[in-house]
Amino acid sequence: MPQSLRVIEMIARKNLFHDKGRVVISVGGVALSVTLVIILLGVYYGMMTLGTNYIVNTNADLWVGQEGIHDLWHTYSLLPRGLGDEIKSVDGVESVHELIGRAVQIEVPGTGAKKTVYIVGFDPASGVGGPWDIMKGSREIKNGEAIVDHVFFVRNNLKLGDTIKVGEKELRIVGVSKGTFAVVYPYIFVTTEDAAEIFGTTQYVNYYLVELSGDRPATEVAKDITDRLKEKGMAVEILTKERFIQNHKDVINESFNSILFPLVFIGFIIGAAVIGLTLYTMTMEKMREYAILKAIGAQNRFLRKIVFQQAVIITFLGFAVGIGLSLLATTFVPRFAPEFFVEMNSATVGITFAAVIGIGLLAPLIPIRRLNKVDPVVVFNA
Amino acid sequence: MPEILIKATNLTKIYGSGRTAVKAVDNVSLTLKRGEVVLLMGPSGSGKTTLLTLLSGLLRPTSGSIRIYSSFHASRKFPISAHGWVELTELNQDELAKLRLEKMGFIFQHFNLLSSLTALENVMVPLLIRGVNKKEARERAKRLLVELGLEDRLNSKPEKLSGGEQQRVSIARALITDPDIIIADEPTANLDSKNGREVIELIHDRAKRDGKGVIIATHDPRIVDFADRILYMEDGVIYEKDSSQARKLLLFKEGRVLAKGMGTKVCKDLKPLIHLLF
Ligand SMILES: Nc1ncnc2c1ncn2[C@@H]1O[C@H](COP(=O)(O)OP(=O)(O)O)[C@@H](O)[C@H]1O
Ligand SMILES: [Mg+2]
Question: Is A187 helix (H, G, I), strand (E, B) or coil?
Fold first, then answer.
């Protein structure tokens, strides 16, 4: 550090820490706003992850659904059963699996409360479309058994071996899966047969999950499958895994951006206001001292750097404390509220850091303008 | 080394304009020599502070010239004529700041220490602004404060210091860069007689020992003993008297003013001093 900067740093720091209460308030204010923003962004990224987790972790390169499908939440897909062989015969297709999945109300044992869950019927033999991360119990299921989502499991005080009722169908819980709370619905995994029974039809499935051999581009294979099924008089919509994931992100963005981003913005405004006000009042209070420095030979540039340095100190301390608080929140909150998933990724931290730097650069501007007007003559008077 | 440090010619400062204009300094010329202690005396409102701020380059004169002698090593920092004189009125803000840092030390009525810094740090500040490294600055500041009898106060904040101590710290701050010129505005006004006397003695001894030019604005008649020269100021005009005459005039005037303002008690206090002089 060059000499002049060290002096500035010293005066800035001493000046700032002279009033510890104010340091606590300003650093605390910045930290809270950083925490607020990180948590909000974390909830947003957490929703993105939760909302797409199932598709990300399901071994399907293509999702074949009814024409017009967009996502698993808003659009409903129904296709006749038994198209698997037809699809499989298309060049580049490795395997095809039927998936039955739908939101449905179930009855929780003990309380008898009704909860909406997403029932997924998958083929236990291939495991495609099934759970991918088992926390407890078994990965294998037979008819009459279910693997339930962890959040659902905890929230309803369930134990392995408990029975849940879906309509008339009773299912014994044999396993608990993680990462399967898709923002609104917990997933419950059952066999394809049980799912067909629950939904009262053996004629239809909801999706075909297609794995590709990788020899041909996904979009080409998708087009061939579409054409092949069209010849059979079947209108389907085929989405690549990436497209399908993106569709879910779009839904989350549409529903939450209008709430989330104003809140994030408010968080930053609070942070900026706290730093700005602190610096401003502090600079105003120390006006005479700045005048003294100017009188004994400091240049305006020197005074500006002091205020600036103070902004840097508050900003970095606030950011560090904010990160600390956020880490605490992301670690401890899920213990009490398992559905609360805050994802603190590098993007969240990066965006917050960039914004905080921006605030740190902007906040001193007003007090610095005042500094230029400091008249050192005042130090000669009372 | 030239004898003259400041040469001010025909300085005038008018505050405001039109009907509200105040001529605070009226066509003043003066010089300050090395090793010389000049007292600028006169009643409140006579223009002493204004004159000092003009000489420090903190205020621009309405007209007139202020030249400061600047030695060769500082010459790259501001435009200097061939003879080593810097014309203050031709410098910009930054150059004036550099000149103050380089050539002047300031002592104020209200001490003006930085409240968040310790005594030691306050004295270090001018050195640090000049780019002296921290370790050396600390050492030099410490040595000077010890010399001034403040070894027990090095790490005290100003609020923990008595008025006399604060003023000694501020003297150390003024002296630390070894400037040619010391400018002091009412340095004893906030001190009791004992401390006031000590402070003036200190400034005086340093000026004599190190060959500094000192100009002190004051209306404190107790300190006239320390002056080589007294400039008497009234309504912006300076009357330079031969020193013994000025002393009598001042004591008489100040005594009267104080007596009028504060009653006979002050008059009684002044009596021994007046007695001593006349
Ligand atoms: N900033 C200013 N604006 C207008 N008038 C001023 C200002 N400063 C001082 N004066 C006036 O100039 C005169 C001299 O003031 P000053 O230099 O402070 O005298 P002193 O230091 O001898 O008390 C006074 O009449 C005072 O009211
Ligand atoms: Mg004055």
Answer: strand
- The minimum CA-CA distance between B170 and chain A, rounded to whole Å, is 11
pLDDT at A290: 93
CA distance A314 to chain B (A): 17
ipTM of the complex: 0.85
Range of the domain at B205: 4-277
Assess A1–B contact: CB distance below 8 Å, yes or no.
Answer: no
Residues 6+ apart with CB under 8 A from B18: none
Alpha-carbon distances of A22 from A9, A281, A284, B164, rounded to whole Å: 18, 10, 14, 31
Say whether A299 and B100 touch across the interface (CB within 8 A): no
User: With contacts defined as CB-CB under 8 Å, which chain B residues touch A7?
Assistant: 125, 128-129, 134
Whether B59 sits inside 8 A of A377 (CB atoms) is: yes
pLDDT tens figures, B108-166:
999 999 999 999 999 999 999 988 988 999 999 999 999 999 999 999 999 999 999 99
- The number of distinct structural domains making up chain B is 1
Distance CA B60, CA B74 (A): 22
What three-state secondary structure class fits B112?
A: coil
Between the CA of B38 and the centroid of ligand 1 the distance, in Å, is 21
Q: Return residues 261-320 of A near B (CB < 8 Å).
A: 288-289, 292-302
* Domain extents in chain A: 3-53+256-380, 68-234
Distances (CA, A) of A335 to A154, A175, A331: 10, 20, 8
Q: From CA A29, how far away is CA A27, in angstroms rounded? A: 5
